[in-house]
Amino acid sequence: MPIINSSITQTAKVDVFNYNISTDYNKYELIHTPFESISGQLLIGGLYTSNLPVSANGKNISASMNSAYLYDFYDRIHITPQLIALGNLVSSQTRDIGVWNAYLTPKQLLSVGLQNADGISVNLQTDPPIYYGALQEQIHIVSISTVGSISIDTFIAFVFEAPTIGPKARITGNRVVVSSFKPLAEFVETLEWRTDIIKSVAGEQRIALREAARQSFDYDFFFESETFAKAKAMASARSFYPYAVPIWGEAEKASTINTGDTVIFVNTLFSDFRVDSLIAIYTDSSNVEAGEILSLTNDSITLKLPVTGQYTNASVAPMRLALTLEGFKFNRKVADHVNASASYTVTDNINLAGTGPFPQYSGLDVFNKPTVLISSANERIYQSMDVFDNGSGIIELDTISDFIDKTYTVSWFTETLQERWIMRKWLHKIKGRLKAFWLPSWNHDIELDSTVEATAVSMLIKPIGYEAYLGQTDIMIELIDGSTFYRKVLSGSTVGYRESLSIETSLGVQVTPETVRRICFMSKVRFDTDSVSINYQLPKIATFSANVKEIQL
Predict the structure, then answer these.
(1) Rg (CA), the chain
(2) Dihedrals φ, ψ of 21, to 5°?
(3) 216 with 240: CB under 8 angstroms?
(4) Quick check: helix, strand or coil at residue 423?
(5) Whole-angstrom Cα distance, residue 453 to residue 391?
(6) Strand ranges (DSSP E) for 389-457?
(7) What is the pLDDT of residue 6?
(8) Which element (helix H / strand E) includes 231?
């Protein structure tokens, strides 16, 4: 059997305190050396004397000290914030920078260095050298002016006595100039999407290549000599940089705005106000102020900084960042009067799509606005085909698709901001050529010839040649009392001197010829262009007109 060398440990004795044993076995405790603590004291067993340290065949060990939170946080200089992202600077601003000495000893700030600091200064509490006590923080004010380089990328270095290293603070942003010239009452806004269409014999596939519409504004101006000089100087200096452009078609009126106000009471429901974006407060071209939005409610705007001016009956308009890719154009007719124009291409576009005001039929919107007009002069019915003609023989044709192409012109007329906002959100929903919708013809295409009972699935009409020329179609039945029904016509047949149409489902109510306002065909269409123009006639009217094309899928 194996032999084990061992010894019997001494049992605990009453009145003897062992410093090596923790009172709580579930945690680590600091271990004391008993002989350093009780040297010279008389304990059970006699007088003890410490003989430490005792050599015990030691050896060298290579090691390194692990990092800890203590060393990450203390014994260094902290600056908060280290990055000040101004975004788009439209007014002079100030920011606080905190400098904290996290050393356990005093430190001396010798100087403050600035790099690329055009229009930026640091206001210290006292001139350097400045003494920071142990664990002391001081707050310094940074002033940023609107006058200076357009692009802001500034570094601020706090230089302390060696070997103390002070970190740098960075300021970024862009100085944005407000295009404060109000255009003439008539101008054009363009929303432009991008859709890839893959055609086949049976239909087409549509793929969106742009998530949000690219927005642009074509403004015309009338300048007098003083305003012309300002516009010309601005155009010369900022042709490559964005402007903050008021969206004049969405401006709301504010009765009174006082100096120091941070809340402006205006209706925000039907205009494109956005948190962290800009607004223009405008009375005339020489009395305009920009502000940045902190928060919004349905009837108020809270600004990040107080208003500096005093305004009565001011226009409050959302602003977009926009480039003048083609610059300004000036046409001087007489010495003191200048006509000018500029096209602003917006860079901060978002998708404003929302639920539309239209009823649904077969999963698509029915564009049932009474203001929608189909112009028969602009209708076209044709079939896509290849024509083979050498000029001297028989003409040969080859069809590209199996269905007839039909195009129409559709228009929409609005007179209020709310109607305009609904129109805009719906256009964002449709996304140019991407999405389809139902379009009633608004003609009296079908004339009812007898009463249709509530449970009937057929109707007698005056003859239009339905059986000979038409197959399955979709119709809208509009009654004088405002009731509207959308149904699919499955087939038509001739019954004596009349025609009978079979509909997919019954109407659920009795309909007589006297109660019908119109029965018209509906076409499944999409826009035939990715570019939709909205024409404004301030202050109220806005219209758009675009070609639409009938599709099968």
Answers:
(1) 40
(2) -110, 125
(3) no
(4) helix
(5) 60
(6) 396-399, 405-414, 437-440
(7) 56
(8) helix 225-237
pLDDT (0 to 100) of residue 381: 61
Sign of CA pseudo-dihedral 245, 248, 249, 253: positive
CA neighbor of 283 nearest in space, from 263, 260, 319, 256? 256
Dihedral sign, CA of 157, 93, 285, 540? positive
pLDDT of residue 101: 92
Q: Is 393 exposed, middle or buried (0-12, 13-18, 19+ CB in 10 A)?
A: exposed
CA gap 314, 255 in Å, rounded: 7
Determine contact, residues 278/319, Cβ cutoff 8 Å.
Answer: yes
Q: CA neighbours within 13 Å on the CB side: how many for 503?
A: 21
CA–chain centroid gap for 400, Å, is: 41
Structure tokens at 246: 């008021």
Distance CA 484, CA 509 (A): 11
pTM of the model: 0.73
For residue 149, give the 3-state DSSP assignment. Answer: coil
For residue 60, the model assigns a pLDDT of: 82
Question: Would strands 263-264 and 278-284 be described as parallel, antiparallel, or unpaired?
Answer: unpaired
Q: What domains does the chain contain, in order, with CATH numbers? A: 90-175 (2.60.40.1890), 186-346 (no CATH), 352-553 (no CATH)
The answer to whether 453 and 460 are in contact (CB under 8 A) is: no
- What is the pLDDT, as a whole number, of residue 5? 63
- Could you tell me the maximum CA-CA distance found in the chain, to the nearest angstrom? 135
Which string of DSSP letters, residue by residue, matches 239-285? TTS-EEEE-GGG-EEEEEE-TT--EE----TTS---TTSEEEEEEET
Residue 374: the pLDDT is 40
Residue spans of the chain under pLDDT 70: 1-48, 335, 370-385, 399-404, 553
Half-sphere exposure of 350 (CA within 13 A, CB side): 9
Tell me the residue length of the chain: 553
Q: For residue 359, what are the CA distances in angstroms to 135, 296, 544?
A: 67, 30, 21
